Amino acid sequence: MVSGSKLTILLMILMVSRPTNTCGPGLISKSRPTNFYVRKRQPDVPEDSESASGKFKRPLKMDDPQLVRISSTQIEFKSKIRDAKCRMATQQCKDSLLRLADVVETHWSKKYKLLVRYAYLEQKDIHSSKNRNVFKNKSLHLEGRAFDLKLIEPRRRRLSSRSLRRIDMNLPTLAGLAYYEAEFSFVEVKPHHIHVSCTKTGNKKRSRLFLTKFSRCFPENASVRREDGRRIRMKDIKVGERVMTLTADGRPTYSEVTMMMDRQTNVTVADYVRITTASRKTITLSMYHLIPILRINSTQREFVFSKDVRAHEHQVLVYDEGGGAAVKSLVTSVENVRGRGAYAPLTMEGTVVVDDVFTSCYASFPSHFISHLVFLIWRTFYTLLSQMLDLTAIGEGIHWYPNVFRTAVNALPLLPYQL
Fold first, then answer.
1. β-pairing verdict for 397-398 and 252-277
2. What is the rounded distance in angstroms from the CA atom of residue 158 to the CA atom of residue 164?
3. 121, 144, 207, 315: least surrounded by Cβ within 10 Å?
4. Mean pLDDT rounded to a whole number for the chain
């Protein structure tokens, strides 16, 4: 729980703003990638999927021309016996590794260096008794497209248990640097190291697709119900329109749209979550978007990230057009899908019914209540001045106001990660 004093400080510094590149109250900054805490893996899809590093092709031999040698005094290699193999990788992975080594030294002021535990491996290495249960037959290590990495203190060969724990605590930051700065296409945090890999053809589209992996919105074809009874697509919503949401006791009502927190028309989001219910209602939203759920045999509503919704364990509230009321419906499947566009409408209620499924307007920050409280200033501003000022214009990109919340949260030790 966030204490009252911290919340007071949070609200006091709300007028400080920094630019960001996603939507929702807790946002990601493309210009400050070291702020991101990588939760297990990024993107949150299998490593061999199209939106990560791609399928395994074939193992490469040591003398394959696709493999190049890595030479750098900024990097150490765990085993001198395997030193020759550890220094081999594809050109794409070599470039990313060298960038990461440089970033590590800069970020930690030369306190740490990058250690390569495993890099290129031959098939006989995969099948050795030592590694039989560690690597898969189609591991990207066989193609020189993967590394297992950690940090070391360069001047100390034997580390204390305290130093080892401190290094492990820094693994999420190392993972963030690997993904956002060094542009590895897949990063996963392991118990005592990180695993990284890269695509076979490089990341030429990475800058254009940067937003697509971390959108905090809905796709353009998602729909809402307007007060006049019409369904409209997310990309056609206008500020000032009244759209359907639910009251605290679950009754359908209509709430005015006060801003589009984000509007990205030319992106393809790689990791939307599609939730399907027993009543055949389906909602598609971003992974870290909040959605209220009820556990089976429980009447207690709680907001969770969409990625944490569990099929056959959670229920969501859906709008039953026939009965004109909200009803509970069991989640039957949760899957990752691609979607075109990224849109984030904000209503007075802070909630909205999208594709007949009740959801929050907020994302990234784990508390719907605090997110809605933070936007009290905007709701007051909109109520008092919307009649005098034209607040209906919707531009491409991020609205300035949500940036404030991210900056405030990052300035205070409220979360174990930074937004």
1. antiparallel
2. 10
3. 207
4. 80
Tally of residues, the chain: 419
Query: Taking a C-beta distance cutoff of 8 angstroms, is the pair 295, 313 a contact?
Result: yes
CA separation (Å) from 61 to 16, 65, 68? Answer: 55, 9, 12
Using the 8-state DSSP alphabet, how is residue 44 labeled? S
The full set of domain ranges for the chain reads 34-212, 217-411
Q: How far apart are CA 339 and CA 285, in angstroms?
A: 9
Q: 3-state class of 7 per DSSP?
A: helix
Determine the Cα–Cα distance for residues 371 and 360; give it in Å rounded to an integer.
10
Give the side-chain half-sphere CA count within 13 A for 152.
15
34-212 to CATH, choices 3.40.190.10, 3.30.1380.10, 3.30.70.240, 1.10.1040.10: 3.30.1380.10
Omega of the bond prior to 413 within 30 degrees of 0, cis?
A: no
State the CB neighbour count (10 A cutoff) for residue 125: 18
> Where does residue 78 rank: exposed (0-12), middle (13-18), buried (19+ CB within 10 A)?
middle
The two tokens of residue 24 are 């929702």
The predicted structure's pLDDT at residue 243: 97
**pLDDT one-digit tens code per residue, 21-68:** 444 444 333 333 443 444 578 887 888 888 788 888 888 888 888 888
Partners of 282 in the beta sheet?
A: 276
Report the distance separating Cα 359 and Cα 317, nearest Å. 8
Instruction: Label residue 170 by pLDDT band (50, 70, 90).
Output: confident
Distance CA 40, CA 175 (A): 9
What H or E segment, with its residue span, contains residue 355?
Answer: none
Token code pair at residue 361: 């307007």
Count of helices and strands (H, E) across the chain: 10, 20
| Contact status, residue 303 vs residue 180, Cβ threshold 8 Å | no
